[in-house]
Amino acid sequence: MGKITLKNVKKAFGDVSVIPDINLQIENGEFVVFVGPSGCGKSTLLRLIAGLEDVTSGLIEIDGKDATHLPPAKRGLAMVFQSYALYPHMSVRKNIAFPLKMAGMSEAEQTSRVERAAKVLNLTNYLDRRPGQLSGGQRQRVAIGRAIVREPAAFLFDEPLSNLDAALRVGMRQEITELHQTLKTTMIYVTHDQVEAMTMADKIVVLNAGNIEQVGSPLELYRSPVNLFVAGFIGSPKMNFVEGTEAAKHGGATIGIRPEHIDIVEGGPWTGTVGLSEHLGSDTFLKVQVDGIGTLNVRASGEVGRHHGDRVSLAPQADKFHRFNKDGRSMK
Amino acid sequence: MATKASRTAARLMISPAVILLFAWMIVPLVLTLYFSFLRYNLLTPSGNPFVGFENYYWFLTDPSFTAAAVNTLLLVGGVLLITVIGGILFALLLDRPMFGQGIIRIMVIAPFFVMPTVSALVWKNMFMNPVNGIFGRIATGLGFEPIDFFGNMPLGAITIIVAWQWLPFATLILLTALQSLDQEQLEASEMDGANWLNRFWYIMLPHLARAITVVILIQTIFLLSVFAEILVTTNGGPGTASTTLTYLVYVASLLQYDVGMGSAGGVVAVVLANIVAIFLMRMIGKNLDA
User: Fold this and answer.
1) CATH no. for residue B231?
2) Is the predicted pLDDT of residue A204 greater than 60, yes or no?
3) In whole angstroms, how far apart are CA A9 and each of A5, A56, A120, A191?
């Protein structure tokens, strides 16, 4: 249950092609994250899988069965929306029971399933409230509850955490991950936040302008990005890119080095002036204007006593270079 | 900002407007009350003696009063039913993206801008006239007996005319309400397995509840005073078949020249309207809070 296959899926709105051509295989029980910048087509792709948009051409298979032209309700998928899309005039209980009621389930079965879902999500005390009386995190949990009672083949999440504040987001992130470990159901999760992607995913699909740039586990993408886009998108702070003679010296049209792979040492090959320094205690982020190369982000662990205007000497870790050719593809 | 001095100043400055509005309301009301206790007929100028509740007695025991009260309720109820149901259907239709949407929306709203007298005359002479009207022609053409709208179903005919005038108002309010419905809610319910009818019943209709309340309250206020449509079509007849309370007050004061009786009728109408208003507020007003 919960294997989804996309074959040559294309989507165009009028003359505008949003998704030129996508092939993707999602295994049963996987937590897959679609990540990419705004407008890269990741939400559209999710809506195509959900059935809320029609594909222009191509095939969508769910559990080996062609679902390309099935209506959303018949696909056996459940979706959690960015705005949660709770029904404001219904109590939490009725919200969660709504899909069961639509499926024509008996009252007793509805009640027992709702109670079970509420227990899992710590909503038991809020069942008779309206969504308007709940906090953001609670509404989020109700939306998830409405999805899990149906016991779907897969869950679809459309940027579900973007309306929450930072602290709550970290908490919900862990809750969703734990939920996935308990239910072991396929989950497809859309986000533009690469931290969410890195922390939650079994498999990340990096999208750009409707194309899949790379598919892989979080650390695969971190270690060996296939092109400049993935290299720049995955990892925070962003990877540094250096072009020109310095790049040629290391054997590439462009070379990339992550901020955490540059050490502050005495007598390193690069020297520069600190522009901006952010001291977090656990880490120190420096923006260094390096002579003859440009601005580099440097991340040092712990407290580093370097401030604006200081001269520093930097040494990149030689084995951590990423080399890219003229077309921006990795040369590894 | 709200210091004691500023609050006093605010009260002082707002008082002329409040006093003027209050006087505007209270003077006619008190005068009407006063006249309703006098024998005051313009045809028998024999002084205006105080007669207590005599006017009320004769007004309330007049057989046409019961007929008028029932007619008023039927008219208001009928128009509300047609406009709310019709308004919802039109709003659903106009909410769909279609060719020439802007023009169609303007055309739908157009009847609201036609004066009641004009629209009633157009309906009377061009649509509902059994000989010259379109409906009559169609019926004759198909071999049926044409319906004499104002002879056989005068109140029904007036209800249709008034409903036609108020349908655009209901449509407009309900359309705006429908457009404010979060699309993700509809998509979520679609994912939850709700078909169109379920989506309408469980998602759209509850969302429209507040707008429907507003439509009913506002329309009731205006429909209780429908007058021009009756005057230019049936004159309240045949008999009292299409006489409403408003029309009955008009008959008493301007056809029988009985100011006292007209005033008494006016006061009765005000009281009845308030009873209806309280009833409505109780019944559906709770939709307005929360």
Assistant:
1) 1.10.3720.10
2) yes
3) 10, 8, 36, 20
Q: What is the mean pLDDT of residues B267-279?
A: 85
What percent of chain A is predicted at pLDDT more than 90? 32
Quick check: is B31 in a domain? Answer: no
Where do the domains of chain A lie, and which CATH numbers do they carry?
4-230 (3.40.50.300), 259-324 (2.40.50.140)
ipTM, interface predicted TM-score of the complex: 0.80
- Judged by CB atoms closer than 8 Å, whether chains meet at B192 and A146 is answered as yes
- Separation in Å, CA B47 to CA A132, B55, B192, B257, B266: 66, 16, 77, 15, 22
Number of domains, chain B: 1
A77 interface with B at CB cutoff 8 Å:
yes
Chain A (124-163) residues lying within 8 Å, Cβ to Cβ, of chain B: 132, 146, 150
Of B188, B198, B290, the CB nearest to A85: B188
Q: By the CB < 8 Å criterion, does A102 face chain B?
A: yes
Round to whole Å and give the CA distance between B20 and B24: 6
Hey, are the CB atoms on A99 and B198 less than 8 Å from each other?
no
> pTM of the entire structure?
0.79
Question: A124 CA to chain B: closest CA distance, Å?
Answer: 22
Q: Tell me the chain A residues in contact with residue B198 when contact means C-beta distances shorter than 8 Å.
A: 102
Shortest CB distance from A52 goes to which of B187, B194, B207?
A: B187
**Within 10 A of A213 (CB to CB), how many other CB atoms are there?**
21
Q: Which domain holds residue B104?
A: 53-287
Q: How far apart are CA A264 and CA A248, in angstroms?
A: 23
Q: Is residue B267 part of a domain?
A: yes
In a domain? residue B175:
yes
Return d(Cα B118, Cα B112) in angstroms, integer: 12
In a domain, B182, yes or no: yes
Interface touch B191/A50, C-beta < 8 Å: yes
CA-to-CA separations, A45 to A2, A8, A55, A56, B203, in angstroms, rounded: 17, 12, 9, 12, 26
Question: How confident is the model at residue B21, as a pLDDT?
Answer: 95
Q: Rounded CA gap, A167 and B2, in Å?
A: 38
Q: Does the distance separating the beta carbons of A52 and B184 come in below 8 Å?
A: no
Name the minimum distance, in Å, from the CA of B266 to any CA of chain A.
41
